[in-house]
Every structure is written in structure tokens, then in C-alpha cells.
Amino acid sequence: MIGLDQLFSVAGKVALVTGGGRGIGLMMTEALVASGAKVYIASRKREVCEKVAAKLGGDGHCIGLGADLSSEEGVVALANEIKQREDALNILINNSGVAWGAPMEKFPWRAWDTVLELNLTAPFALTRELLPLLEKAGSPEDPARIVNIGSMLGTVTESWTAYSYGASKAGLHHITRVFANEFADRNITVNAIAPGPFATKMTAHVAENAAAKGAVAKQIPLKRWGTSEDAAGLVLFLCSRAGAYVSGAIVPLDGGATAKA
Predict the structure, then answer these.
(1) Which of 15, 68, 138, 236 has the fewest CB atoms within 10 Å, i.e. the most exposed one?
(2) Which residue of the set 40, 163, 165, 245 is catalytic?
């Protein structure tokens, strides 16, 4: 039995976290860097990623990149930049996403496409492009890891009028299971995290309203929103030796909300 410090360590590993400059992506980035990984973070707002990267230690610890993942060209450009910088990739966290809410009768056609392109098509394409680096990094004892950030809305049937968001996350959960089977022989595990309410930019309209935030918390069995420690603990488990035998799981990170639903 190895020591606990080694069991949950990602020291020496190379990771890419899309959308790693804010929200849950930032929470996971901070955890990976603190545990010894070299982490690339990428989003459309390159300046935000660069500032976050500098704060977390800069080159050798965290590197900020710009990437527009709403198009195939943007996805391929990001993958090529990683390929130019690294020979292998131990961890890919597909976190970038967008939400759109509107009543069913007024839900825009383009909004549906926009959400699915970033939340589902982009993770699929980025995984496709980075598969050679992931395969090179993995071994039977220490597989490479793909972690897709889904949502409890990809599991429950309450829409919150975010119809395309829930559908995109359900699709991401499904492709996670498909990839887990297809990539097992390549020494790559594939899992998804399905968060419930966390205080992020996407949920700011609720999180910054004390009454609304409290009302949401009352619906959660554990009676609270998620914290950075909750996100950090789960991503370190999945990406370290501790989680090497877990693949094809959709892990709820929601205080019991999915089980209640």
C-alpha cells in the first residue's frame, strides 16, 4: 500500500483544463497545480488565463493559452499548440461550457446550436485531436485520464428552461461511457463529473441573490452549495493513483440533489 501523499498526488503530470481560468475549472486547476501537476488552461479570454497562470506560478506550474472552442479550427489550433509544447498529456479536463435559458416558446434555434457546439461537439473534437498524446502518457498501472465536466441537469428531467444545456450535458455523459469502453485498451480512463450548484459566473444571477441562493440550498439534501474543496477533492481522486480503476462513471457532485430528484 502506497502512502496517502502518493495515492492522491498528480506530481509530474501534464494536464489541460479548458475553461480553467474561472469557475469550477479554476477550482480544479488550483488543485492540480497545488498537487504538483503542470497545467495548461485555455479559453477565449487569453488574458484571463494568463493572469491566473501567473498567479499560480507561471511556466512549469501553470500556462495560460487562448482558444476559441466554438469552431473546429479553434479546437485543432489548441490541440496543435499542446502538441508543439508537450510529447504526452496525462490529463484532459473538458470543462469549457455555456448555458442559455429561455421559455420553450421563445427558445432560439441558434442558441440550441451554440450550446451544443461548445458543450458537446468541442469536447468530442478536442479528445479526438489529443488522443495520441493521451495514449502516449498512459500505462496499465497509471492510465491517462479524461474528465468531462457534465451537470446534474444532464441527469434529471427538470429543465430550468436551459433545454439545450441539459441535452448537451446528457450527451456528454453518454459519450463519456462510450469513450470509457473504446479507450480502455489504450490505457485511458474516461469519467464525467456532474456538478450541482456552485457559485460561478454561470450561476451568478442566483448565487449573488441571498434569497435565491438559500432557496436552492433548501432543495439540496446537504443544504448547501458546492465549494472549491469539493471540486478539488474529486478531481484529484479521479486523476491520481486513487482513481486509476474508475472509468465510465458519471460522478454526482451535487450534495445528493440527483438522488433526491
Answers:
(1) 68
(2) 165
